[in-house]
Amino acid sequence: MDPFLKIGITCYPSLGGSGVVATELGKQLAEKGHEVHFISHSVPFRLGSFHKNIMYHEVEVSDYYVFRYPPYDLSLATKMAQVAKAQELDILHVHYAVPHAVCAFLAKQMVGDNLKIVTTLHGTDITVLAQDESLKDLIRLAINESDAVTSVSLDLMRETREVLDISRDIDLTYNFVDGREYYPRDNCSCRNDFADPGEKVLMHISNFRPVKRVSDVVDVFKKVNDQIPSRLLFVGEGPDLPKIQWKIKEMGLGDRVHFLGKQDDIAQVISMADILLLPSEKESFGLVALEAMACGVPTVGSVAGGIPELVAHGETGFLAPIGDIEKMAEYCISLLSQPELASRVREACLKRAKGEFSSEIITSAYEAIYYRVLNRKLPHLKPACG
Ligand code: GMT
Known about the structure:
InterPro entries: Glyco_trans_1 (IPR001296), Glyco_trans_4-like_N (IPR028098), Glycosyltransferase_grp1 (IPR050194), Thiol_BshA (IPR023881). By secondary structure, the protein is of the alpha/beta class.
C-alpha cells in the first residue's frame, strides 16, 4: 500500500496564527511526500510560490438572488466533498471548529465514512465562540463527530472540556516553527533605522484585538523607557490600532514608537528586538512568542492560556499576572540591564525552540494521528528537513 496520504487542509487563509500553522503543516507534509490539497476561499498567505505535492482548490460562493447572505459554509462543505471524492482524500484536516469542523462534518455525510476528519482547535473557537449558547451545541457536535481532535495547548484542551462539557480524547499538538526560516537573523542595519546603538528595542506583534491588551504594551514600554532608553516597534494592525496611536500621542511617546504594519518576513523583523511583549488576556498558545524564541528573543508577557506552556518563566522569558504592568516592566528592565541574564535566556530560547516545538516533531505527531484514525501502520518516512 502507498505509504503516503492524501490530505485536505482547510484553514482561515488570511493573517493569523491558525492559518500560519495550517499552511506550514501542509508544506511540511508535502515535503515528506504526502499529497496536500488546500480547500479555501483564497490562497493561504504563507503558501507562497509553487510547491511540489500541493494543490489549491478555491471555494466559490453561490450568489443566487434568493440568498440575502451568500452561504460560504455550504459552498465550503460542498467543495470539501467534491475534492474528497475526486482526489480520494484519506484525511480532511480542518483548523478551527467554526465553521470548518462543521463543514467537514457535512462533507463526511456526503462522502462516506472512509474520509477521516481531524479538527485542530486554535483558541478563539473555544475561548470566545463556544461561550455563545447559540453556537455551543454546534461546536460540540463538530468536535464530537471528528475522528480526532487536537488542541494547541493543554490549557485549551482543559477549557474545551469544561466549556463544552465533553469527555472525548483530545491530542496535544503544540504549534511549531520551521528552523530553516526562524533563526536569529543578522539585523544590525535594519535595527539602526529605528534605534541608536545604545538603545534597546521592544516589540509587539499582533492583530490588535482587545484580547491582546495592546494598551498594556504601551504602559510597560513607558516604564522601561523611563529607566533605559528604548524604542517600541509595533507589527500588525487591527481594531485597537487607532486607540493605541492616540494613547502614544497623548503620552508624548511618538518619537520612541514605530508602526511597521503587516510584515511577511517575521523572523527578519523579530530579530531586531531585545524583547517581545505579549500581555494578552487570552492566548491559547501564542505562536508569535515561539517565533521570537526561535530567533533568540525572549518574551515578557502574561500568565494567560497556553503561554506558560511555551514560555518557561525565568528560563526563556518572564510572565506576570494579566495586567500587572509593574511586574512586566521590572522583568524587562532586568533583562535589558543584565547582559549575562540576557545571554543565558537567549541561549535557552534557541535550545527550547529546537526541541518540542520543532517542525519535525510536530509534523510527525500529526502524521501519527492521521495513520491512527485510518487504522494504518505508521510508515518510516524521511523527515522534511533532511
Ligand atoms: O491570536 C489571534 O487572535 C489569532 C488566532 C488565529 O486564529 O490564528 O490565534 C489563535 O491561534 C494561534 C495558532 O494556534 C495561537 O497561537 C493563538 O494563541 C490563538 N489566539 C488566541 O487564543 C487569542
